[in-house]
Amino acid sequence: MAWFLLLLAGILEIGWAIGLKYTDGFTRVTPTILTVGSMILSIALLGLAVRTLPLGTAYAVWTGIGTVGTVILGIFLFAEPATFVRLGCIALIVSGIAGLKLAA
């Protein structure tokens, strides 16, 4: 269950990171409310997950999910470059997340 909560927390981290772009510097009300709500729920779920998971592992996995998801959505939503180096770095992050999951 803790891993599932951590996965949801990571997905919400992607949501608030992407949401920051849509807040237009926190000047748009609805995107700002959704972004802040995602931040709060993401942190709350992370807090629940670390009750049973090792803190370092949970935090690294949480940020890794957020990083990978945000980069991938940035490529699709905002036409950010999908260079070989960027995709290779994403693969390294995913490998690190998988390694931490296996070691926990």
Task: Give a structural overview.
- The chain is flat.
- The protein has one domain (2-103).
- It has 104 residues and is mainly α.
- The mean pLDDT is 95.
- Helices cover 84% and strands 0% of the residues.
- InterPro entries: EmrE-like (IPR037185), Small_drug/metabolite_transptr (IPR000390), Small_multidrug_res (IPR045324).
- It is found in: Cell membrane.
- GO terms for molecular function: transmembrane transporter activity.
Strand-helix topology:
Layout: H1 2-23, H2 29-49, H3 55-78, H4 84-103
List the main descriptive attributes of the protein structure presented here.
Small_multidrug_res; EmrE-like; mainly alpha; 104 residues; Guanidinium exporter; transmembrane; Small_drug/metabolite_transptr; 0% strand
Number of strands: 0
- Distance, first to last CA: 14 Å
Number of domains: 1
What overall geometry do the principal axes of the alpha carbons give? flat
User: Given the structure, what is the number of helices?
Assistant: 4
Instruction: Give the uncertain stretches in residue-range form.
Output: none
Structural class: mainly alpha
Q: Please outline the major beta sheet.
A: none
Order of helices and strands: HHHH
Indicate the radius of gyration in whole angstroms.
Answer: 14 Å
The percent range for strand residues is under 5%
Give the helix level as a range of percent: over 70%
Mean pLDDT: 95
